[in-house]
Design a protein that fits this description.
The structure holds two protein chains of two kinds. Chain A is an alpha+beta fold. Chain A contains six helices and five strands. Chain A has a five-stranded antiparallel beta sheet with strand order 2-1-3-4-5. The chains are: A alpha+beta, B alpha+beta. At the A-B interface, helix 1, helix 2, strand 5, helix 5 and helix 6 of A face strand 1 and helix 5 of B. Strand 5 of chain A pairs antiparallel with strand 1 of chain B, so a sheet runs across the interface.
C-alpha cells in the first residue's frame, strides 16, 4: 500500500469527485439511494455545500448555506470547473432522520445528528444509549459506504469515462 | 465532543493487527499502563492518556468496565496547561523590573530575559491547573474498525501515537484512497487500478 500521507494528498480528488457524483445521484437517480435498504431510504442535499475550484496553486471557494438556499450558484460553479468539497446530507428512513456534513478531502463526518434517543438516567441507560447511538451512526455510515463502493467501483471501470462522466456533464448543463 | 452529544464529528480508522488472547485482559492491561496520569505536581504542559468513558476524571479499567455490547468504549484525555500570552507577558515584565531594580542596571541582556521567561513559565505552569480535553472512541475489535469522535488534527495525531504505543497496533485513517483500497471489498484487479487513477476533467 502507498504511504498514507502520499495517498492522502495525491488522491484527494477522489473525495471531490465522489461528493460531486453524490449530488448528481441525488438529483437524477434516487432509485440508487432508495435501494440502499429495502426501498426505504431517501437522501436530500441539506443546508450547506462548499465547492472548490483549483487552478495551479490558486483555490476558489464557493459556499452555499441556509435551509432555503438554492443550488443554482453551485451548479454554475460546477460548470466553471469547481467540484464539491463539503456537502450537508439529510438521510431519511421510515420516520427517522440523519443529518451530517461529509468533507471530500478526509471523508470526515461533521455535525453528525442521528434520530433522537432515550434519556440517560442510570448506568444501565448509559450502556443502552451508547449501543443505540452506535447503531444509528453505523446505519448512516453503512449507507454512505455502500454509495462510496458504488462510486469507486464505477470510478475504476470503463463505464466512468464512457458513461458516467458524459451523464454528469449533461446534468451540469441541463 | 462526546459520543452521546446531540451533534458529533467522526474520524474513522481501520485497526491493523490483532492482540494476543485473552483479548479483554490484554486491552485492560494496555489501557491501565497508558491511563492518564495526574500532572498537577509537575510542570508538563501537556499529558495524554486513556480514561474511562463514564468516569473520565477517575480512570478505571478493571474487569470489563470498558466493554459495551461488542464494542470497547473508552476515551482519550489530553490535559493541557495553557498560560494566556498576556499573563505571561505581564509576569515577565514584573520580574524584569524587579531584577533591574535589584541590579541597578538600565537593561537586561537577552540571556537574562530568556531566563526570566523560562522561570516565569515554570512558576505559572505550576499554578495554572491543567484543562482536560476528552475525546471518546468506539473500537469494534472483531471488525477491526474504530470511530474517533473528533476531527481535530492534533487530537487525531495524539490518538494514533498513543494507540500504537499502548496496543502495538496501527491505526489507518480512512480517507478517500484508504477507504477505497481497504474497506470497499474491491477485487485485486480493481485495487491495482486505484494508484493509476488521475483526476477527472468534467468540463468539455
Amino acid at each position: 500500500m502507498l504511504d498514507v500521507s502520499v495517498s492522502y494528498n495525491r488522491y484527494k480528488f477522489l473525495g471531490y469527485e465522489y461528493l460531486t457524483w453524490l449530488w448528481f445521484v441525488v438529483e437524477t437517480d434516487q432509485d440508487r439511494i432508495t435501494n440502499l435498504e429495502q426501498g426505504s431510504v431517501s437522501m436530500e442535499i441539506g443546508n450547506r455545500m462548499v465547492l472548490e475550484k483549483k487552478k495551479k496553486d490558486a483555490r476558489e471557494t464557493i459556499t452555499i448555506k441556509g435551509d432555503d438556499a438554492g443550488l443554482e450558484e453551485g451548479m454554475l460553479a460546477l460548470r466553471k470547473g469547481a467540484l464539491v468539497a463539503e456537502i450537508n446530507i439529510l438521510l431519511k428512513a421510515n420516520d427517522q432522520q440523519w443529518r451530517f456534513t461529509v468533507k471530500a478531502e478526509s471523508l470526515h463526518f461533521v455535525g453528525f445528528k442521528v434520530p433522537p434517543t432515550g434519556p440517560v438516567k442510570s448506568e444501565e441507560d448509559l450502556e443502552g444509549a451508547v449501543l443505540e447511538k452506535a447503531y444509528l451512526y453505523d446505519r448512516a455510515m453503512q449507507w454512505m459506504d455502500k454509495l462510496y463502493k458504488q462510486f469507486i467501483t464505477l470510478r475504476v471501470s470503463e463505464d466512468w469515462p464512457n458513461k458516467v462522466v458524459p451523464l454528469v456533464r449533461q446534468w451540469m448543463h441541463s | 465532543m462526546g459520543l452521546l452529544s446531540s451533534s458529533v464529528s467522526i474520524t474513522r480508522y481501520r485497526v491493523e493487527g490483532k492482540l494476543k488472547a485473552p483479548i479483554l485482559e490484554a486491552v485492560a492491561d494496555c489501557l491501565k499502563e497508558n491511563a492518564i496520569p495526574q500532572i498537577d505536581g509537575d510542570v508538563s504542559d501537556k499529558t495524554v492518556g486513556w480514561t474511562s468513558f463514564d468516569t473520565p476524571f477517575a480512570p478505571n479499567f478493571e474487569g470489563s468496565s470498558f466493554v459495551i455490547g461488542t464494542y470497547f468504549v473508552f476515551s482519550l484525555r489530553i490535559d493541557k496547561r495553557i498560560i494566556p500570552s498576556k499573563v505571561l507577558k505581564k509576569h515577565c515584565a514584573i520580574e524584569a523590573a524587579k531584577r533591574l531594580a535589584e541590579s541597578g542596571r538600565p537593561y537586561l541582556s537577552r540571556e537574562e530575559k530568556n531566563m526570566i521567561l523560562d522561570h516565569v513559565r515554570n512558576v505559572l505552569t505550576l499554578r495554572i491547573p491543567a484543562t482536560p480535553y476528552l475525546y471518546d472512541l468506539i473500537w469494534s475489535y472483531e471488525d477491526g474498525s474504530l470511530w474517533f469522535f473528533s476531527t481535530q488534527k492534533s487530537a487525531n495525531e495524539d490518538l494514533e501515537t498513543l494507540f500504537l504505543r499502548s496496543f502495538r497496533l496501527s491505526l489507518i485513517r480512512l480517507f478517500p484512497y484508504t477507504s477505497a483500497d481497504l474497506m470497499m471489498g474491491l477485487s485485486d484487479q480493481q485495487r491495482d487500478l486505484l494508484p493509476k487513477l488521475s483526476a477527472t476533467e468534467f468540463l468539455d
